[in-house]
Amino acid sequence: MFRKILSNLPFNPSLITQVSFYAKRLQKESAVRRVGLIFISLTMVVQLIAVISPAEASNQCSSNDVLRCGFRSKQEAVQKCNANTQGFRTIVERFGVTCATIAGANTVTLNSYASNNKLYSMGRNPYNKPGEFVFDIAGAGRYYFRPLSSWGNVNYKMLDMRTPDGAPFRIMYDCGNIVVERDYQPPAPPEPPSKLKLAKVNNPKGTVKPGDVIEYTLAFSNTGGNAAFFSVNDILPTGLTYVSSSYGNWIFEKNGQHLKWYNNTPPYYTFGNTDAFGTPGFIKVKVRVNADNPNGKVLCNNAWVEDVNPATKKVQKWSNQKVCNTVHVPTKPEPEPEPEPEPEPEEKEPVLAIEKKASNITQNIDDANGTTAKPGDVIEYSLETSNFGDGEKKDHILEPEKLSDVLEYADLDLNSLGDGVFDTDS
Questions:
Q1: Which of 99, 292, 302, 314 is the most buried (most CB within 10 A)?
Q2: Residue 422 half-sphere exposure, CB side, CA atoms within 13 Å?
Q3: How far apart are CA 50 and CA 42, in angstroms?
Q4: What is the pLDDT of residues 248-267, one digit of tens each?
Q5: 153 touches 113 (CB < 8 A)
Q6: Is 103 helix (H, G, I), strand (E, B) or coil?
Q7: Strand stretches in 112-267, DSSP E
Q8: Among 317, 321, 322, 243, which residue's Cα sits nearest to residue 284?
Q9: Buried b (16+ CB within 10 A) or exposed e, 43-71
Q10: Does residue 56 carry a pLDDT above 50?
């Protein structure tokens, strides 16, 4: 249109006003196009920046944080690990990672879609995200793993290290949450160390005479993990002679004055946690005081329990216990104790018990209780009385048997009473 007006302008000078109008309009359209082009360019730049550098994670605190509000430096993470803040040390140790491992970690920034979207983060709260699963840690509680990309395309600042088996292990700065790869299986929880204890008592206590028998009771427990190559040991002093011991199905060895008992379950002869059994183990040992012991000699018996430390492979002894008795040799015969008066004879009492039984003679059913009788069947009821006491019971009347409902549809055979008497009144 503008070109048409220009071509006609020499023939019609009045068109100059329209030329002026369209010129101004073209200037405005050109300006609008330039502004639009600028905005389109800015939009493309923003999108390019978003792709090259995604948004950083928010540092807002959450109840999902393994460490509330996370940490600002590696030193702070190590400090919280050493203090076991919110069970942090217990959590990382479940993966075989120690506070020293954290101290040697590097700081990296990883995108939530890194490692082909195989990164999984662990937090305290369930969110029902796709791929989410439960992970329990003894002594720390229940946690939840889900894909790190569940929270979008985000860059996270993390401490980067390795587990003892070489798997990548990261801790997020903002929240302390653990990040591992999807297929990683943490090692089984380590067996807790054994924790053995022995208690020992002697009976009698105090002084003993030559020829007396002393009984030692050894009670042993384990409140930790399995004790390998466990044994109970007792050293008898000179002046005592071994008589006997009770030790169940365990193995007993005697080497001079050294007594030893151990579990007969190869290959490691372990002794488990007694809290699970509900009771400690017991061994009773009887010894005799030798006749040649001088007056005043102190006889001390030592006992302990031991096992083998799995890490050092060395024997470790626990809970050495010592009990003592003093020998007293009488200088003159001790007077005979006065005889105790004869106890009054106890009055003998009968203890009666009655057993009732029904048999179906016709159907040859010995125990017909609960069965169905047919018309004409002969049912034999027997009442057997037994006396479990010491005294006799004569002319005893049994508790009346209610036969009124039975006699409405059956007859009573009085010839089968034997020596019994049937009281029709009761």
A1: 99
A2: 11
A3: 12
A4: 888 999 999 999 999 888 77
A5: yes
A6: helix
A7: 119-123, 133-137, 141-147, 155-162, 168-172, 178-181, 196-203, 206-208, 213-222, 228-235, 240-246, 251-255, 258-262
A8: 243
A9: eeeeeeeeeeeeeebeeeeeebbbbeebb
A10: no
Q: How far is CA 350 from the centre of its chain?
A: 53
Rounded to whole angstroms, what are the CA distances from 98 to 84, 193, 232, 279, 318? Answer: 11, 18, 35, 35, 28
Tell me which amino acid residue 33 is: R
From CA 255, how far away is CA 238, in angstroms rounded?
Answer: 14
For 253-289, the DSSP string reads: EEETTEEEEE---TTTT-B--HHHHTS-EEEEEEEEE
- The rounded distance, in Å, linking the Cα atoms of 24 and 55 is 45
> Cβ-count burial of 95 within 10 angstroms (0-12 exposed, 13-18 middle, 19+ buried)?
buried
> Residue 89: how many CB atoms within 10 A of its CB?
19
Query: Which residues have C-beta within 8 Å of that of residue 88, sequence separation ≥ 6?
Result: 66, 67, 80, 81, 176
Give me the numbers of helices (H) and strands (E) for the chain, helices first please. Answer: 8, 19
The conformational region for residue 395 under phi > 0 = left, psi -120 to 50 = alpha, else beta, is left
pLDDT of 57 over the 50 cut: no
Q: What is the CA radius of gyration of the chain?
A: 47
For the chain, the straight-line distance linking the first and the last C-alpha, in angstroms and rounded, comes to: 134
Those residues with Cβ within 8 angstroms of residue 60's Cβ, 6 or more apart along the chain or in another chain: none
The structure tokens listed for 61 are: 């605190």
Instruction: Write out the DSSP string of 279-342.
Output: S-EEEEEEEEE-TTPPTT-EEEEEEEEEEE-TTT--EEEEEEEEEEEEE---SSPPPPPPPPPP
Instruction: Report the run of H or E that residue 17 belongs to, with start and end.
Output: helix 16-52
In this structure, are residues 257 and 308 in contact, taking their beta carbons and an 8 Å threshold?
A: no
Give CA torsion, residues 405, 410, 412, 416, to 10 deg: -120
Can you tell me the distance from the alpha carbon of 212 to that of 209, in angstroms, rounded to the nearest whole number?
6
**Distance from C-alpha of 124 to C-alpha of 88, rounded to nearest angstrom:** 12
Nearest one of 77, 51, 75 to 66, comparing CA atoms: 77
Between residues 361 and 173, the one the model is more confident about: 173
